[in-house]
């Protein structure tokens, strides 16, 4: 990876990378709210006297947008860029309420204590970005790639040095190399999104919630993403055919896939929300395709 891309992740639960252009600086995702302080000090160390210009968000989930209000307080002129759908979501009072609740829970789970107060009004997308948009940073650029399937607002980002930040739609790698699938809103769109990322044939891959994929894991990466969601779909459909309802499928799913590694890397409520979403999606799309 080029040294103009720096990992500034503030803590467990979501990662953040800083991209240094000659003229502009950009952050890719900001992680959880409780990591705000650490994230800001990490960014400050790298930026030195420069300011943060752009904050790109891959989607509107709390573990990717949580620190936005603190970042905006520190760099009021920074611009938050995300999908139009993410902008709509972050306008909704109930979404902001959910984000705050999940942020509070995460602060407890990760022993970060009480969440520092923040202003909901700062938690928003300032500027909408679309598939194919290119943001120039001076000497490097960021291309926006719509990759729906995890959410309707999921975006992947390709840096001009060939580094791809695939969205959570494609899956997240674990420390064991296994891929956790995350197709909450659409199975078929997730498949298409994986193919779309694969076709880019990126030089480097930064897997969400993980980081840089090693040279050894890179050749099989996209196939592993496809296999992971295929396996999940098959597992859910098999139970459905045996007469299990959604809640029963969730219990079996948890027994099967909630391993030690998953426990370390994802809070239980987030794991369940993810699984519930995938179960609903598989059963819904099964009906549609029948
Ligand atoms: Zn997410």
At a glance:
Helices cover 42% and strands 16% of the residues. By secondary structure, it is of the alpha/beta class.
Description:
This protein is α/β, with parallel strands linked by helices and 290 residues long. The protein has 2 domains: 5-223, Metallo-beta-lactamase, Chain A, CATH 3.60.15.10; 228-289, no CATH class. It is built from 10 helices and 14 strands. It has helices at 36-47, 62-65, 68-74, 84-89, 93-109, 187-200, 221-241, 246-257, 260-265, 268-289, and strands at residues 5-7, 17-20, 25-28, 54-56, 79-82, 127-128, 134-136, 141-146, 155-159, 163-165, 172-173, 179-180, 204-207, 211-212. The protein has a 6-stranded mixed beta sheet with strand order 1-2-3-4-5-6. A hairpin with a 3-residue loop joins strand 13 (204-207) and strand 14. The chain is globular and about 60 Å long. Zinc ion binds at residues 59, 61, 150, 168.
Q: What topology does this entry show?
A:
Layout: E1 5-7, E2 17-20, E3 25-28, H1 36-47, E4 54-56, H2 62-65, H3 68-74, E5 79-82, H4 84-89, H5 93-109, E6 127-128, E7 134-136, E8 141-146, E9 155-159, E10 163-165, E11 172-173, E12 179-180, H6 187-200, E13 204-207, E14 211-212, H7 221-241, H8 246-257, H9 260-265, H10 268-289
Bound molecules: zinc ion.
The site of zinc ion has 4 residues, from loops.
């Amino acid at each position: 990876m080029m040294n103009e891309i720096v990992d500034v992740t503030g803590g467990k639960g979501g990662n953040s990378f800083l991209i240094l252009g000659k003229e502009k600086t950009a952050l890719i995702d900001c992680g959880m709210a409780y990591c705000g302080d650490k994230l800001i000090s990490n960014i400050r160390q790298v930026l030195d006297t420069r300011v943060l210009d752009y904050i790109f968000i891959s989607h509107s989930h709390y573990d990717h947008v949580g620190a936005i209000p603190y970042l905006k307080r520190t760099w009021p002129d920074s611009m938050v860029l995300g999908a139009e759908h993410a902008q709509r979501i972050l306008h909704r009072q109930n979404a902001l309420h959910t984000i705050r609740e999940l942020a509070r829970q995460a602060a407890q789970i990760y022993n970060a204590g009480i969440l520092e107060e923040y202003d909901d009004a700062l938690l928003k997308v300032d500027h909408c970005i679309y598939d194919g948009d290119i943001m120039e940073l001076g000497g490097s650029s960021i291309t926006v790639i719509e990759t729906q399937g995890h959410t309707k607002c999921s975006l992947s980002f390709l840096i001009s040095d060939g580094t791809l930040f695939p969205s959570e739609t494609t899956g997240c790698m674990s420390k064991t190399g296994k891929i956790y699938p995350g197709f909450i809103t659409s199975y078929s769109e997730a498949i298409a999104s994986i193919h779309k990322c694969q076709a880019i044939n990126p030089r480097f891959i930064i897997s969400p919630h993980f980081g840089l994929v090693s040279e050894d894991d890179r050749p099989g990466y996209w196939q592993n993403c496809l296999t992971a969601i295929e396996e999940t779909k098959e597992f859910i459909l098999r139970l459905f055919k045996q007469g299990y309802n959604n809640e029963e499928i969730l219990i079996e799913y948890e027994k099967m896939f909630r391993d030690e590694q998953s426990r370390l890397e994802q809070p239980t409520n987030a794991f369940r929300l993810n699984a519930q979403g995938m179960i609903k999606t598989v059963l819904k799309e099964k009906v549609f395709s029948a």
